[in-house]
Amino acid sequence: MSNQVTVSALERRIDMSVPLAEIDKDVEARLKKMARTAKMPGFRPGKVPFRMVAQSYGPQARSEAIGAAVEKALGEQIRSQSLRVAGYPNIEPKESTSTEALEFTAVFEVYPEIVIGDVSGQDVERPQLEVGDAEVEKTLDVLRKQRTIFVPAERAAQDGDRVLIDFTGRKDGVEFEGGQATDFPFVIGGGQMLKDFETAVLGLNVGESKTFDMTFPEDYHAAHLAGQTVQFEVALKKVEEPKLPEIDAEFAKTLGIADGDVAKMREEVKANLEREVKRRIQAKIKERVMNVLIETHPIEVPKALVEQESAQLAENAKKDFEARGMQTKNLPIETSWFAEQAVRRVKLGLIMSELVKSKELHAKPEQIRAIIEDFAASYEDPSEVVSWYYSQPQRLAQAEALVIEDNVVEWVVSNTKTVDVATSFDDLMGNAA
């Protein structure tokens, strides 16, 4: 017996009852089964009197029988009504005077019904950028700067120099904690020190000292110094100027070109750059496509799925912190921090699942192979990387998920208004000033 009540768009409450006679019958059957193997002092296994078995195991048998009866009754109702349950039902006992039935209420959420919306009125911008010599040179400049070395300079300190100093800080004439250092190196303009401190060192020569006042920002991390004016004494001990490596055979070797062939190095840089540009363009298109799907499918999502997703995101964040060497034992990571992100991810998951099913956007084997070969192309031995992916179903599943995403993106792009937009290298690569 049951009665379904719709509480909200996704929440359901089903009132049910199970005859106590059925439960009693199941309890007896369970106890008889237990009696066949029950062990008690003074009795051989299976020879314990049924009364004693019932006394010892009765509560356990009744709990199991009630759980099985509730699960069976709920399962029948879910199947008969074709309900898609999200999360786990909450079973609430009902107050009842009935001596013939156990009455309870099952509370749960169902998946939303999703109808694929019309995306034809939406715009999707496609960034356009062709990798040429200028982009290769910019990338080589970045790679050179990453390999900057510092050499001694016989002149006053300038912006960009690495200096070695001693300094002492005083507040009201008294040295304060953390305000002293000996043989302290830093790059002027590198952001390691406060801007006013860096400016004070500019123009000093080796062997010179300077005393200056400095006011800490109001939001400075050390509360006892925030907004306070102090006096620093600094002595310059060494000046080194930056020197970028030349684009030659030695530089090519640092980029993995064994024979130092500079032309080959430029070709590889260009090929890698083209792959990265393609990846970033696809990422921007994908981001817009996902926004289109959210905008054209205003659905409610089950709280249970959002809670599960929030918990997973919190766990991922914890693992990320630990991978960076941080201790997370006493670090409070609240699932509520990830609620907004979790809602978006659950919505997209449900929408994309329906889109894949209704538009037959499943990943084909040749698509999976192509994306894996693309991943492997930048490695020294691509065939080894391909074999690595195919050696475990879990790795293949990750590639399959990416193909499905690409299929969804392609479907949305082909059904929307696409606009090609010229994009600068710096904007796309995140190097814009």
TrEMBL record:
<keyword id="KW-0143">Chaperone</keyword>
<dbReference type="GO" id="GO:0044183">
    <property type="term" value="F:protein folding chaperone"/>
</dbReference>
<dbReference type="GO" id="GO:0043022">
    <property type="term" value="F:ribosome binding"/>
</dbReference>
<keyword id="KW-0413">Isomerase</keyword>
<keyword id="KW-0132">Cell division</keyword>
<comment type="similarity">
    <text>Belongs to the FKBP-type PPIase family. Tig subfamily.</text>
</comment>
<dbReference type="InterPro" id="IPR008881">
    <property type="entry name" value="Trigger_fac_ribosome-bd_bac"/>
</dbReference>
<dbReference type="InterPro" id="IPR027304">
    <property type="entry name" value="Trigger_fact/SurA_dom_sf"/>
</dbReference>
<keyword id="KW-0131">Cell cycle</keyword>
<dbReference type="GO" id="GO:0005737">
    <property type="term" value="C:cytoplasm"/>
</dbReference>
<dbReference type="GO" id="GO:0015031">
    <property type="term" value="P:protein transport"/>
</dbReference>
<dbReference type="GO" id="GO:0043335">
    <property type="term" value="P:protein unfolding"/>
</dbReference>
<protein>
    <recommendedName>
        <fullName>Trigger factor</fullName>
        <ecNumber>5.2.1.8</ecNumber>
    </recommendedName>
</protein>
<dbReference type="GO" id="GO:0003755">
    <property type="term" value="F:peptidyl-prolyl cis-trans isomerase activity"/>
</dbReference>
<dbReference type="Pfam" id="PF05697">
    <property type="entry name" value="Trigger_N"/>
</dbReference>
<dbReference type="InterPro" id="IPR046357">
    <property type="entry name" value="PPIase_dom_sf"/>
</dbReference>
<dbReference type="GO" id="GO:0051301">
    <property type="term" value="P:cell division"/>
</dbReference>
<comment type="function">
    <text>Involved in protein export. Acts as a chaperone by maintaining the newly synthesized protein in an open conformation. Functions as a peptidyl-prolyl cis-trans isomerase.</text>
</comment>
<dbReference type="InterPro" id="IPR005215">
    <property type="entry name" value="Trig_fac"/>
</dbReference>
<dbReference type="InterPro" id="IPR008880">
    <property type="entry name" value="Trigger_fac_C"/>
</dbReference>
<dbReference type="InterPro" id="IPR036611">
    <property type="entry name" value="Trigger_fac_ribosome-bd_sf"/>
</dbReference>
<keyword id="KW-0963">Cytoplasm</keyword>
<dbReference type="GO" id="GO:0051083">
    <property type="term" value="P:'de novo' cotranslational protein folding"/>
</dbReference>
<feature type="domain" description="PPIase FKBP-type">
    <location>
        <begin position="160"/>
        <end position="240"/>
    </location>
</feature>
<dbReference type="InterPro" id="IPR037041">
    <property type="entry name" value="Trigger_fac_C_sf"/>
</dbReference>
<keyword id="KW-0697">Rotamase</keyword>
<dbReference type="Pfam" id="PF05698">
    <property type="entry name" value="Trigger_C"/>
</dbReference>
<dbReference type="InterPro" id="IPR001179">
    <property type="entry name" value="PPIase_FKBP_dom"/>
</dbReference>
<dbReference type="Pfam" id="PF00254">
    <property type="entry name" value="FKBP_C"/>
</dbReference>
